[in-house]
Amino acid sequence: MTDDRPLVVLVHGVIGNGCQLAGRADVAKYWSDVPGALRDAGFDVLVPDLPHKGSVRDRASSLTSFLGPYGDRGPHLLAHSMGGLDSRYALTILGMPARSLTTVGTPPWGSPLAELSAAAGGLAVFVGGLFPAHQWLSDAAVHALTPSACALVNAAVKDVPGVDYYAVAGVHEPDDGLLWTLPTRLVGAREGPNDGLVSERSARPEWWPGETWPDVSHAGELGWPVPFGDGNSRASEWVRLAKRALVATTS
After folding, report:
1. Is the bond leading into 225 cis (omega within 30 degrees of zero)?
2. How far, in Å, CA of 181 to CA of 24, rounded?
3. pLDDT band at 176; cut points 50, 70, 90
4. Any idea where the domains of the chain sit in the sequence?
5. Contact call for residues 47 and 38 (beta carbons, < 8 A)
6. Half-sphere exposure of 191 toward its Cβ, with a 13 Å CA cutoff?
7. Neighbouring residues of 197: CB distance < 8 A, sequence distance ≥ 6
8. String of b and e for 54-87 (b: at least 16 CB within 10 Å)?
9. pLDDT digits (tens, 9 = 90+) for 64-112
10. pLDDT band at residue 123, thresholds of 50, 70 and 90?
11. Fold of 7-248
12. CB neighbours of 2 closer than 8 A, spacing ≥ 6?
């Protein structure tokens, strides 16, 4: 890495980096081709590995410690899913330095699937059985994604002056034949258009500017292969978001 290149930090969601879903070895890395595309576009890229069974506070603390040596470079945070909650907490409560936070599929207002999982007394309901829940999730992580927990965080965690915020939601139809059909319908019945885990309403809170990606599931936002995503790369979209943040904080 060189100090003359802008620094992007990719903050992963609840299940963590390098996981294999349901024993599928072809899902090698959480971020797919995004890091390479960002480097090719002229960015330095860091990919921290946060505790996937931790609470938002635990994960935010880990992220803050990881970025300690890089704070003077004014990093741009690109976060997916729960990673956006961790990043926001780290910026506001822990004072972690950053120039921008861009979230994709992050639920500042929580996800009803987390609430349904808690009501069912376990983790198996969460994300429609896509993940080996006993391995990748914990009660603390799922509780942090419930609407009630997120409402408490929103009351305490405010935006940091001088930091650029931007939020992206994904939406897709529940009858696309992928594994997201059931969770998309469950979330849709409660909150309307969604990506299979997070509704558009939750992913795009009224206090942040943002955009909506059409025809994409929660895993598709990362370009994961079928059956977890649609197999279409979204790397160019992540590069575009990084460039938007760079322009917004230098103009």
Report:
1. no
2. 20
3. low
4. 7-248
5. no
6. 24
7. 81, 105, 107, 111, 113, 127, 183, 187, 218
8. bbbbbbbbbbbebbeebeebebbbbbbbbbbbbb
9. 999 999 999 999 999 999 999 999 999 999 999 999 999 999 999 999 9
10. very low
11. Rossmann fold (3.40.50)
12. 44
Block residue for tokens 């960002």: 38
Question: Tokens 């936002």 appear where?
Answer: 221
Q: What are 203's two structure tokens?
A: 């992913």
The number of residues making up the chain comes to 251
Cα–Cα distance between 222 and 15 in angstroms, integer?
A: 13
Give the whole-angstrom CA distance, residue 12 versus residue 79.
6
Task: Check: CB of residue 71 under 8 Å from CB of residue 90.
Answer: no
Over residues 2-51, the pLDDT tens digits come to 678 999 999 998 876 544 444 443 334 789 899 999 999 999 999 998 88
Tokens 């072809």 sit at which residue? 26
What residue has token string 């921008």? 100
E-strand ranges in the chain read 7-11, 44-46, 76-80, 100-104, 164-170, 210-213
Burial (Cβ within 10 Å: 0-12, 13-18, ≥19) of residue 40: exposed
Beta strands in 99-201 (DSSP E): 100-104, 164-170
